[in-house]
Amino acid sequence: MPSPSRGPAASSDSVSSSNSSNSFDSFDSFNLSVIEEFRANGGRVGGPFAGGNLLLLTTTGARSGRPHTVPLGYVRAEGLLLVVASAAGAPEHPQWYRNLLAHPVVRVELGTEAFDVVAVPAEGARRERLFAAVVRQAPGYGDYQALTERRLPVVVLELSETPPAPWRPAAPAVPTLADRLLEAHTWLRAQLRHVRAEARAIEPGRPAGLGFQLRQHCLAFCQGLTHHHTGEDAAVFPALARSHPELADTLARLGEQHRAIGRIKEELTALLAEAEHADPDRLRADLDRMSADLEAHLDYEEAALLPALAAIPFPPVRPAPDGR
Questions:
Q1: Strand bridging mode 75-77 / 80-84
Q2: What does the angle CA 273 – CA 277 – CA 283 come to, to the nearest 5 degrees?
Q3: 189: buried, middle or exposed (CB in 10 Å: 19+, 13-18, 0-12)?
Q4: pLDDT tens digits, one per residue of 238-297
Q5: What is the pTM of this model?
Q6: Coil, strand or helix at 110
Q7: Torsional sign, CA 153, 157, 162, 166
Q8: Closest Cα to residue 183, out of 215, 160, 209, 166?
């Protein structure tokens, strides 16, 4: 961990490579104290992080699926918000980095603000340029790179619109379930535009070799779509079926569309699993097909359900225990 004089506060995952259970306990305890101080004081902390650039990053566990929050140093360069998976020069990537590769949508707390981003590791010449910019501001990261043979990942935290994050309750500014539906649909459409633009940029006739930019946005889209449809199938549609029986045929049709789109999504996920050998023409064809089907589904769902959903406050108001 570099001293504050050598740059912003570094990742406090720096002891995570230790094999000692006591070290892990101390690491968790230290992280928790920093997180509590950060949240209690609007992002200001003391001790070794005093005066440094610090944020909180919440990822979804790659294996557990549970939220995991760590304090990290950050750098701003080229108008981007960056974190470095340094682990203080340890030989292995920190767990938070492995988490975001599995679940790209992450939560950032910065000062008194909290927002969702898509985490995308920089690659090639862009990574080299951004890492040089990081080291100019925080030379300690250069020291960390000298300690390990692995190339320290530089992660761009790309502002997202409003993805469905499993650890985040709905924003209170959304007044009705209709607004929440439109919010989710807006995010899905934006992610799909990202993915299609990146797929079109692949040179025709050559293997995609899916880069992080395309891979992370693909995963974010697929996981966001799954979360959205799961919530509709499990909660929204059954509630509407009870309160609006005249929508039974519409809800049945929407359920069938969910299953059809789910099958296309599984095909796209399978392509990602073979990223190095992915056929760009097949990828683009699948994306075009999914885009057409998804846009038709979203348009139909909005036309059919928004009038009913506009009368439902969000989050839904639970009746009092005594029925009043």
A1: antiparallel
A2: 75
A3: middle
A4: 999 999 999 999 999 999 999 998 988 887 777 766 656 667 777 788 788 888 888 999
A5: 0.78
A6: strand
A7: positive
A8: 160
